[in-house]
Amino acid sequence: MSVNAKGKVPESWDCIDCGANTAPGFMNREQIEQAFTADPDATINQTIDDASEVYMVRPAVWTAAGMSEMGGCLCIGCLETRIGRKLRPKDFLRKHAFAELPGTDRLFDRRGG
């Protein structure tokens, strides 16, 4: 059985501008597909820590950065460069599961703690 995670998992967690891995403990789309194709009942362990910048911003912010949905990942610094300003807490989707994840000091600062 072949698994298709397109549109559900990024092709890469690397920032498309600077190349920094925004989620060092996460698998990309291809890796997820391979794991579940090999074993549909597999348990996938992924980790997130203080080296991660996994977040969701409001669609208007993402669009202002010239990004499309599932168009790749941006680290906080590159997103700010693209929009020409520092991110503010209201830019983030507060009720999204990613809002509760650990991350870099820079991400915590922008999310407001």
Molecular structure report:
The mean pLDDT is 94. The radius of gyration is 15 Å and the shape is globular. The N and C termini lie far apart (43 Å). The longest helix is centred in the first third of the chain and has 10 residues, at 29-38. With 113 residues, it is mainly alpha-helical. The protein is 27% helix and 0% strand. It has a domain at 50-111.
Distance from N terminus to C terminus (CA atoms, Å) equals 43 Å
Strand content: under 5%
Helix amount, in percent? 25-40%
Q: Overall 3D geometry?
A: globular
Radius of gyration from the CA trace? 15 Å
Overall average residue pLDDT: 94
Report the sheet with the most strands, covering strand number, pairing sense and barrel closure.
none
Number of distinct beta strands: 0
Which stretches are low in confidence, meaning pLDDT under 50 for 5 or more residues running? none
Q: Compute the number of helices.
A: 4
Structural class: mainly alpha
What is the H/E string? Answer: HHHH
Oligomer: single chain
Q: Top keywords for this entry?
A:
single chain; 113 residues; mainly alpha; 4 helices; 27% helix; 0% strand
Outline:
The chain is mainly α and 113 residues long. It has helices at residues 29-38, 59-64, 76-83, 105-111. The longest helix is centred in the first third of the chain and has 10 residues, at 29-38.
